Amino acid sequence: MGKEALVLIDYTYDFVADDGRLTAGKPAQAIDGAIASRVESILSKGGLVFVTNDLHFEGDTSHPETALFPPHNIKSTFGRSVFGETGETLKAHRSLKDTQIFYMDKLRYSAFNGTPLNSLLRQHGIDTVELAGVCTDICVLHTAVDAYNLGFHGVVRESCVATFVPGGQDWALNHFKTSLGFDVIKK
């Protein structure tokens, strides 16, 4: 088996905490331990973790999400920090930054759009990506579609993704499996 790679998508305070600006709330909080465990496991085996966080700018009315969602993940705010145990696990491994842990800002739903993610995965010989974070049926979904279109195989653990949209979780997990050929691992 080759080197593992986890793409962590939008697991920030604004998307997860009770007082987050666009929170998925309890479902997102419930996956914190599972994500932290996956981060620890992958890093301990020499794998890679890509932390991809949504980036918005205060007062920006030109971004397409402005009409869809309240302001969130605003540059230089605490809301962009990685949430909870997962954030603490990443901090504990800060010495691995830029060798095993890569942080990147994304301006659209997909972690591939406008970021060096594709190039870094290819540079490291990664052909399978595991996706984790929020929201399953929005940013995780768009990242999965791009991964598929770029020729990557995908893995999604049900215990490591969540959303705030009723029915969105089951629909997206089914789509990953039946339309993208991803391995969907139940709990």
Name given to the CATH homologous superfamily = Isochorismatase-like
Number of E strands: 6
In angstroms, what is the radius of gyration?
15 Å
Helix/strand class: alpha/beta
Distance between the termini: 22 Å
Low-confidence stretches: none
Total discrete domains? 1
Number of helices: 7
Question: What is the topology, as strand order, of the major beta sheet?
Answer: 3-2-1-4-5-6
CATH second-level architecture: 3-Layer(aba) Sandwich
Mean pLDDT: 95
| Share in β-strands | 15-25%
CATH class: Alpha Beta
The major beta sheet can be summarized as:
6 strands, parallel
CATH topology: Rossmann fold
Assembly annotation: single chain
Summarize the structure.
This protein has 187 residues and is an alpha/beta fold.
Protein topology:
Elements: E1 5-9, H1 13-16, H2 26-29, H3 32-44, E2 48-54, H4 84-92, E3 101-106, H5 117-123, E4 128-134, H6 139-149, E5 153-162, H7 168-178, E6 183-185
Helix pairs in contact: 3-4
Describe, in plain words, how this protein is organized in 3D.
- By secondary structure, the protein is α/β, with parallel strands linked by helices.
- It has one domain (about 5-185): Rossmann fold.
- Helices cover about 30% and strands about 20% of the residues.
- It is built from 7 helices and 6 strands, in the order βαααβαβαβαβαβ.
- The protein has helices at about 15, 25-30, 30-45, 85-90, 115-125, 140-150, 170-180; strands at about 5-10, 50-55, 100-105, 130-135, 155-160, 185.
- A 6-stranded parallel β-sheet has the order 3-2-1-4-5-6, with helices on both faces.
- α6 (about 140-150) links the parallel β4 (about 130-135) and β5 (about 155-160).
- α3 (about 30-45) runs parallel beside α4.
- It starts with a strand and ends with a strand.
- The model has no long low-confidence stretch (mean pLDDT about 95).
